[in-house]
Every structure is written in C-alpha cells, then in structure tokens.
Fold:
Amino acid sequence: MSAPNIETIVSLAKRRGFVFPSSEIYGGLGSAWDYGPLGVELCNNVKRAWWRWMVYERDDIEGIDSSIILNPLVWKYSGHEATFNDPLVDCKECKGRFRADKLQEEYEQNHPAEGLVIYGTGIVSFAKGVIKCPNCGKINWTDPRLFNMMFKTQLGATAAEEDVKDEGRVYLGGAAYLRPETAQGIFINFLNVQQSMRRKIPFGVAQVGKSFRNEITPGNFILRTREFEQMEMEYFVRPDAEHFKLVDYWVEQYLGWYTSLGLSRNNVDLYEVPEDKLAHYSRRTVDVMYRYFPERDEEARQWEELMGIAYRTDFDLKSHSNKPSHDDGTRANTDATEDLSYFDEAAKERFYPHVIEPAAGVNRSVLAFLMDAYSERTNDKGETRVILKLHPDLAPIKVAVLPLAKNKPEIVGMAKAIKRALQPVMRAVYDDTGGIGKLYARQDEIGTPFCVTVDHQSLEDVSVTVRDRDTWEQERVKVADLQQHLQTRLLK
Ligand code: ATP
Structure:
C-alpha cells in the first residue's frame, strides 16, 4: 500500500517532525516549508544516496557546488531572462491568479472528446471562453501574459535606482537573480572541471543545491514551492553520439535508482514531452512521473513530474562561449571571455559537446519516498498503526534503543551504552519517554527499521531483543554481535 493522498503525509510529517509549515507563528508564508529533525535527516539521506550512486559508484562523473547568485549575464545568455516565463491569467471576478497552461492542460484532460481547443493569444493556447475559474466557477479571464519566474535580488549596498549598467552589462550593485536551476553553474564551469580533473568526453558533472522560482501557483505541500532543492547532472558527449538513445539510458538508470530505494514501479510512469511543449533548450525530454494524487478518479490526473531527462544539445556551452556568431558574422555572445569548446586529442577535432541532463528534485523525491513507504497495519487489539516502510538507506534513524524499565538504572545505563556504541556506525537514538508499545509504534511511524530493547534478562545474558519494523518479529541477539547483526540486516 502507499499513502491514500498527500494530506495524509502532510499530517504525519507535521506530527512526527518531518516537515512544518514555515513561519507558522506569523501566519505562515504561502507554500514555504521547514524541515524538522527527521525531515532534515531524510533529505540528507536522499541527497547522500544520490551522490553515492551518481558520483562515487560511477567513474565518469565529477561533483561541484557552484554559487546560488551568479553573474546576471549567465541568465541573459542561458535564455532565462527572455524565456523563463510562465503564462498567467487573472480571474476578473474573484481576482484569483493561475497558470494558464496548467488550466488548459487540465481542461484538455477533462474534455478529451473536444480535441485540442486552441484560442490563440499569441502566448499560449488558453480556452478563455470555456475554462471555469477553479476558485469561483465563473468565466471571466484576462488575457494570458508572461511572468518571469526568476527571483530578483540586489548585490552589495547599492540601492536599486543606483544600478550600474553599461551596454547591457550589470556591474556590482546592480540587480542579480537567485538561480532558478543548478545546471548553469555546471555549464559555466565546464572547462574548469574538464581541465583540472583531466577529463575526456564523455563525462558528467553533478550538483546538488537550492534553486528558486517565483511560481505563480505553488502548492501541494513540498511538490511545488518557490525555494527547493535540485539534484542535477550534465553529461557531456560528442555531437555525433546517439543522443536520443542516451536519454533512454538515463531514464532506465533513474527508474532503477528510484525503485531500488523503495518506489513501486506501479506508481512511476514516463511522459514523452511533445515537441511543442519542449523547453527552449531541449530537443527531447522525458519526464519521470509519480502518482502523487492516487485519490483522483481519472488515472490521467493522478500524475505529476518527479524529474525530467532532457537532451539540451550544445545550446548552453555555445551560448556561454565568446566564439559563436550569428549568421551575419556578429558575435552572439559579446560578454564571455572564454570559448567553452572541447578539443578531442585523439580525433584532433574541436567541438561543442552535447549534453544529456537528468534533473531531479530533492523535495519531490522525498515526497514520493514518503508516500510510497506509507502503510497501515492492525495490531492484536484492533488498533490501526502507521508503518513507514522507508528503505534503510533513507530512514532518518536506523535503530532506536529502548529500556523496558526506565526506573531501573542498570537497564537504562546498559541501553544508553549500547546507543553510544552503535552511533559511530549508524544513526541511533535512545528513547524512554513511554511504555514499550508506544515506543515501538512511534518508531514504526517514522520508519526506523529496528528497535533494540534492553530488559531485565539483558542484565544476565548480555543479550537484547531486536524488533523488525516491517514484520514486528523479535529476535534475541548477543550484545557483542549486535552491531554486525544490524549492519548485515540494514544492507539487505
Ligand atoms: P514543472 O513542470 O513541474 O514546473 P519543470 O519541468 O519546470 O517542473 P525542471 O525545470 O525540469 O522542472 O526541474 C527539474 C526538477 O526540479 C523537477 O522535475 C522537479 O523535481 C524539481 N522542481 C522544479 N520546480 C520545482 C518547484 N517549484 N518545487 C519543487 N521542485 C521543483
């Protein structure tokens, strides 16, 4: 089983310290969330698992960590200033504001018989005369208009009106952006990484970090927020490589990664993005979709993007290079100081590598892992218990050491000593804040794979009870063997 809906996870996440609504004591901040003691562990475990898989277990990937605020020229030449827009529409009746393309998509899904209804506006197809406002149900829209989603900020102590501009160049003190994707930090460092690490093509560069998008309609918990984290990798190949097949290769890799960490294949699907909906840099994109909305009747409406795999061609490296020119011979990029082309020693050939990009969201991955891990089980007393069957690599806590009697100093001392001994090799906690049944239930609900119970018998036979989260089976294990026993089972 998996979670019946996102709301179930929202309430579990708040109750058990995974995710809290941000700034709650000031009334919250639309769609911002804070990760609590267990949430930060889960996020870190997802990122660590990804980094290990992507960077350490392969021989062709390097990692970097670039700045969040880059020279604004990066966003001029990447195309984001001109094209990183979402179309928005306002309802003139209730003043609600929405993404026109999302309303249109939903309308088309609900009215397949009508085919594609295109009411041209020049910006986006939007069936202005028939789509009802999701807020008030009326039909009275403004025309769609484009809204740039990059967050502006100010560099240095200069006031906005003192922006220093010269022929399009913005100097320190001027406006800058928070990055809307981590990818550009990789492209502008392509030569730095390739030369310092003596890499030959093909190779990739991976990065994990925060990105910011001024989303028009954030929502659905941590699925769509204005501040989020990405795990991106840019894989550089020869222009003549079989790029379309490489997209399929990375799709398979990611399906393997997500399912190996617990996602059920049944809840994951693929979506080939149609040509007319591709981003400006992409020649082919396949989105990996997750069933975030299992409660919706129509199957088609149950899915939302978990990650995307795009073939970005040589668009970015070329755009950031000082050499490429327009058809009339003028330079396309008059600001860059470098040429990001690559010289292939063996073939004695210079070219701009092409790029395959798998781009995943940390937060959307966390939500998918939480939803898929959710299950319920009824105990002997007929009570329903929640069990979060997280993969052991992702579980925030690997083992909880529990004393059967907290008023017995010898038992408490032994339990605390076991916790201390385990801590260097696995995340362990000690808990004595309730009866044993309650303590077990609490650990099940946060996904702790094992509970270790120290009882009166333990003082005599130096053994403990190890309880399995998923089966509730208990096994007696010698304290001397405990670490090895747990490590072996955690690896399974
Ligand atoms: P969407 O169509 O859902 O807005 P996108 O196609 O614009 O997403 P990409 O630019 O491909 O997203 O970004 C790569 C990944 O980053 C997404 O698949 C998603 O996991 C994550 N991501 C993008 N925008 C957000 C957001 N606002 N909140 C949380 N995660 C996001």
Residues 223 and 364 are 5 Å apart (CA to CA). Residues 181, 213, 215, 224-225, 228, 230, 305-308, 359-361, 363-364 surround adenosine-5'-triphosphate (CB under 6 Å). The chain has a mean pLDDT of 92. The radius of gyration is 26 Å.
